[in-house]
Design brief:
By secondary structure, this protein is an alpha+beta fold. The protein has 2 domains: about 160 residues, CBS-domain; about 30 residues, no CATH class. It contains 7 helices and 7 strands. It starts with 14 loop residues before the first strand and ends in a 6-residue tail after the last helix.
Length: about 200
């Protein structure tokens, strides 16, 4: 059984007001080194702005628009989840709606945020997603999935997922890991692999 989002979500979410300018929000994202900002109006989350929104709706389409309100480019209505939703259900929702970030809301108040990466790393989600059709899922979401999983075999529109990231392995290093592309790569090898070797989980 997968965990509830309450136990997985990040609680300290960076927010902005609908009246804030695109430039202000861009500086906020840069300052905190984050990929999204939740737009909140009188404590109620009303939209989300991601790096992708900035590229598609500002840089590529409307240059010189730093003074425009962020509400002009935010994605709305906001797709959200409750803190009691299971991680597997949340992952299914995100894949179905082609999103990578999901605000956690209760009684109209923003409580936290989960990402697709958070979910697919959490306990029980792999088993939940096995057999789920990925037909219609955007290429960028499939790419995010492929960092952590690989197709063992195909069953019609569905595929069997097997763990490939060493963070998700109980028995050590996975030959299918992303090496230099992984956030845990230190320059010579994976940090998790170093720890596993020190514990005797990997044979040299």
């Amino acid at each position: 059984m997968s965990q509830k989002l309450r136990k997985i979500m990040v609680e300290n979410v960076i927010i902005a007001k609908p009246s804030d300018s695109i430039g202000q929000v861009a500086k906020l994202m840069n300052k905190h080194e984050i990929g999204c900002v939740i737009i909140v109006d009188k404590e109620r989350p009303v939209g989300i702005v991601t790096e992708r929104d900035m590229i598609r709706r500002v840089v590529c389409c409307t240059p010189n628009s730093r003074k425009r309100r962020i509400s002009a480019i935010m994605s709305k209505p906001l797709i959200e989840a409750s803190p009691e939703m299971l991680a597997g259900d949340a992952a299914k929702l995100m894949l179905g709606r082609n999103i990578k970030k999901l605000p956690v809301v209760e009684n109209g108040k923003l409580l936290g945020l989960v990402t697709l990466t958070d979910l697919i790393r959490s306990e029980g989600v792999v088993e939940y997603l096995n057999g789920l059709s990925l037909n219609g899922v955007s290429p960028r979401l499939k790419k995010a999935m492929d960092i952590y999983f690989e197709a063992e075999h195909f069953l019609g529109q569905s595929r069997k997922l097997i763990k490939r990231c060493p963070l998700m392995m109980k028995d050590g290093f996975s030959v299918g890991c992303e090496v230099e592309k992984c956030m845990w790569w230190t320059g010579e090898e994976c940090t998790v692999s170093q720890i596993a070797r020190s514990l005797g989980a990997i044979q040299t």
